[in-house]
Design goal:
Blueprint (H helix, E strand, L loop, with lengths): L4 H27 L8 H22 L1 E6 L2 E6 L8 H34 L16 H18 L4 H15 L8 E5 L1 E2 L8 E2 L2 H24 L1
Antiparallel strand pairs: 1-2, 2-3, 4-5
Helix pairs in contact: 1-2, 2-3, 3-4, 3-6, 4-6
Length: 224
């Protein structure tokens, strides 16, 4: 069954509006933005290009988020293209990583604005095409996110069986065949035992400190 037709129409309208507006924004950045914007023009343009790609990824997979009990699944709900389970898995990972990249891009914009206001002398380090230095941590963290999500969200028979009945009931889809990232955080017995704990928690102990240490380093560099 997948996504209801009215929701699909809304998604496609949103996709076309997003593409049109961002291409218009790129045009105005190229033709109307003055030299006073400096290298910030490049940063704005890079975010618009990313948004165009992000919207394309979203419409290609039409993601559906399903939550049941302690399990969750994000799977490909596209009715236009029929992906294999493996391709659908990596497309779902790409979608989640792209969402994280959006946050990282916004952090770069904040960093540039903060530097311009509080430490304008440091802007020479981001002059012209040097502003692309800000993209290094963005795509580094994005790659780390892709690997992390791909690892802990890998589908398995255990996860598929746990979510099988609820997914069939709600969307009439088969959890064993759809391209997905899925997780079951824990399963408890009546005696209180927790025989299954998602390794996602262990992966987060690596990812979260790296992300916040990067933010701390950026913040300390602008305050000195």
């Amino acid at each position: 069954m997948g996504i209801p037709i009215e929701n699909q129409i809304i998604q496609f309208i949103g996709f076309f509006c997003s593409e049109i507006f961002h291409f218009l924004l790129l045009y105005f950045i190229h033709t109307r933005a003055t030299k006073q914007f400096g290298s910030y023009k490049i940063l704005m343009a890079s975010f618009s290009v990313f948004s165009i790609v992000y919207a394309l990824v979203e419409i290609l997979i039409e993601p559906i988020m399903h939550v049941s009990g302690t399990g969750l699944m994000l799977y490909v709900g596209s009715s236009v293209i029929n992906y294999s389970k493996q391709v659908g898995h990596y497309l779902s990972v790409l979608y989640c990583s792209s969402f994280a990249l959006c946050v990282f891009f916004l952090s770069a914009h904040f960093f540039y604005s903060f530097t311009a206001v509080c430490s304008p002398r440091l802007l020479r380090m981001l002059d012209g095409y040097k502003v692309f230095r800000l993209l290094i941590p963005i795509f580094s963290l994005g790659t780390l996110m892709f690997i992390n999500v791909s690892w802990f969200g890998t589908p398995s028979d255990f996860k598929s069986e746990y979510l099988r009945e609820s997914l069939k009931r709600e969307y009439n889809d088969d959890s064993y065949t759809v391209g997905q990232i899925s997780a079951v955080f824990y399963v408890s017995f009546s005696n209180g035992e927790l025989p299954y704990i998602l390794p996602f928690y262990r992966s987060m102990t690596l990812l979260v400190p790296l992300e916040y240490s990067g933010r701390t380093a950026l913040g300390s560099s602008t305050s000195t």
